[in-house]
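Exercise: predict the fold of this chain.
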Amino acid sequence: MSSSTPLTRLAERLRQPFRRDGRPTRLHPSSVWAEATSTAALALTPAWEKVRGLWLRYVWPVLSVVSVLGWSVLAASILLWTAGQAFGWQEAKAAAIAAFVLFLIAIGFILGRSSYGVILDLARTRVAVGDSAVGSIAVSNTSARPLLPAALELPVGNATAVFHLPRMKPAQVHEDLFTIPTARRAVIVVGPVRSVRADPLHLLRRQVLWTEPEELFVHPKTVALAGSAAGFIRDLEGMPTTDLSSADVSFHALRDYVPGDDRRHIHWKTTARTNKLMVRQFEETRRAHLAISLSINTDEYASEQEFEMAISAAASIGRQAIREQRELNVLTQKGPLRCETGRNMLDDMTRIAGAPMRRTAVDLARTLADTVPNASVVFFVVGSNVTPSQLRSAAASVPLGVRSLAVRLQIGAAPGRANIADLTVLTLGDLADLAIVLRKAAA
């Protein structure tokens, strides 16, 4: 590992500013400028880092206390005093003094130290859309003296909740409960809890952070696929394979023994009859491997509600596949999702952000065929703006022997099934009908 520092590198650069392989280079203006720029950067970097550290440690904490209104009042007092001095306006001087006195009085409101013990507790960090997300804040006075009434702020996403603390004796604990709305899928950052000291006019505002921020995952709404719909997911094995194996469960034929074959597969009755070693040969079976192609191109959906329903449908199918311990891959235009567990998959589903993009569901289907070549069943989850010809093109990219189904979202449409060549197209108008359309696919 090199032990060089910016200063040693600068010294080396100054000893041989324009040498390469021991020979002087031509002093071209562009070379001179580039060399001067890099040399100046090496010289100024240590000083800049030191100044930046001092700024962040001592200066910025003081300046950040002053609000926009506070800077405006301070600037106004300076301008009024300057104008009063220049033109002899006693009124301007009086206004400047009054503004400056207000600023000085505001300083008294933010002085002092608070000693709190704050515990932010979210009962559940993962909920589904529509479920209640409840949390609590427990504040204790850890100092040896009473604390005056104060306010705590709790950022929740883009909003801020304010909790008013009463006068607290030493070791006294005050607890507040709160509820977070979960009307839509989102990752909500809750916290950090901060105490705020401010003057009545909010010229100065001093805050202290007491906890770390936490993430609340509002998972997409899913439906349970019970009964025959769950059986359909369980029985999806794709087309039977013709590959032969020396060890499986589906017996195919007998063949001559080859050195290296497992002796447990010798068929002794046939061996005794033919007087030569014969072993069983099996037809390789295929374990269900589901691949879900979820288009997040919002141009392919008629509304935001349709897009959210597509995410919920894909999450419901994937969740059932994980429950059945099937291999699962979920792919979007922005890349694959984690599918090791249902929680990982739903977390990544929650982070999905749709946007208009050039890549369509057809492009995603081609990527899926290359990314998951061993899939036995493929689901295309698309919006109502995807045409039958596009679905046909998407199905054409699926290798032979792989069963393909398309779940086409259309708000308010009746559950239906249609076929486009080897592709089964399922129409879904309501998330609650997902089990019905899967039963139609199994019919």
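Check your answer against the key: Residues 6-63 form one domain.
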